[in-house]
Amino acid sequence: MKIYTKTGDKGSTSLVGGERTEKYDLRVWAYGTIDEANSSIGVARVYIKENDLSEKVLKIQKILFEVGAELASVGTSHYKARIKDEDITFLEDTIDKLDELKPSQNGFIVPGGTIESAHLDVARTDIRRAERYAAELKNSYEISDNLIKYINRLSDALYAIARYFDYKDIMKKTEENIRRFREDNHEINQFSAQTNSQKVINSQTAEYITQKCIQKSYEIGISMVICISDFNGNIVMLERMDDSLLASIEVAMKKAYTAAALKAPTHELHELSLPSGELYGINNMEKIVTFGGGFPLKIDNKIVGAIGVSGGTVEQDMQISKYGVKVFEEVLENGIR
């Protein structure tokens, strides 16, 4: 059978069942756009290495043939609903599972983060266009609700899959940048964990710093959470003042962890975490924060711990955490009094 039939040479084409219509018919625009999206999804699938996700994408492509066929039969005697409830549920389950694997996303995403996500984003916009055509068709023809629902949900699913690949890429780059950041810091290369009292921060010192910070917090009239960690970011002391926000507990812990793990005050990481910075994407990591209130604690210029403070404004958090660093330095010089 020949590929070319010459039946469309005058600008018409066949719908399901054989009825002919002009190639600019809205139904042709609709199912043709679905075909465009399917092709873009196919390109993305070539690059997907995860078998489970590749199978999900392939299933979507197969269902899109049913979508196209239903659109190509709209308004004919051969029209029948082809999209089932379980097809929609499959997309919703896929979206939910992928959302569990990554942090919530705020703001717009610039397409092109990865090869996979770039092609999926093209497909997503194709699907949105197909949805507009389908919505217009509904004004003139009987169309199943499931067809409209599926097309709408598919754009969300493609978005979720694309963002999953972007997130994986960000995490990979972040891990590489953190490793490079640490390797470039000669203090870290020179420092190894030791158990003598000059290389660790003990609970007595941590408690003393914490109590001093609490006194200072009372002076400025802000209830704070103070966290002291060791050089690995493990908690040595955690104190929550009365009336401080419960959410500040986690933030204070993250500030201490970040300052210890990355060997830098947390506010200095903000510029590095911007799109032009060396640690772009790092603020998507679960335990990392890139705003003020965390400082490393040093002995002889070597990291032995960190302090994280949360509860006030960034400036207030930094004020108390800086004071904690000052108290620690006084302890080293004069001992606990």
Question: What's the short version?
Answer:
The protein is of the alpha+beta class and 337 residues long.
- What's the β-strand tally? 6
DSSP helix count? 10
Overall form: elongated
SS content category: alpha+beta
What is the ordering of alpha helices and beta strands?
EEHHHHHHHEEHHEEH
Poorly predicted ranges: 186-198
Task: Tell me the domain tally.
Answer: 2
Per CATH, the class of the largest domain reads: Mainly Alpha
Sketch the major β-sheet.
4 strands, antiparallel
User: Which strand order spans the largest sheet, edge to edge or round the barrel?
Assistant: 4-3-6-5
CATH fold annotation of the largest domain:
Hypothetical Protein Ta1238, Chain: A
Please compute the radius of gyration using only Cα atoms: 29 Å
Mean pLDDT rating: 85
CATH homologous superfamily of the largest domain - what is it?
Cobalamin adenosyltransferase-like
Distance between the termini: 95 Å
Give a structural overview:
- With 337 residues, the protein is of the alpha+beta class.
- The protein has 2 domains: 12-179, Up-down Bundle (Hypothetical Protein Ta1238, Chain: A), CATH 1.20.1200; 203-334, Beta-Lactamase, CATH 3.30.450.
- It is 55% helix and 10% strand.
- The strands form 2 sheets. Strands 4-3-6-5 form a 4-stranded antiparallel sheet. It has a two-stranded antiparallel sheet with strand order 1-2.
- Helix 1 runs antiparallel to helix 2 (51-71), helix 4 (115-137) runs antiparallel to helix 5 (145-184) and helix 7 (203-220) crosses helix 10.
- The longest helix has 40 residues, at 145-184.
- The model is unreliable at 186-198 (pLDDT under 50).
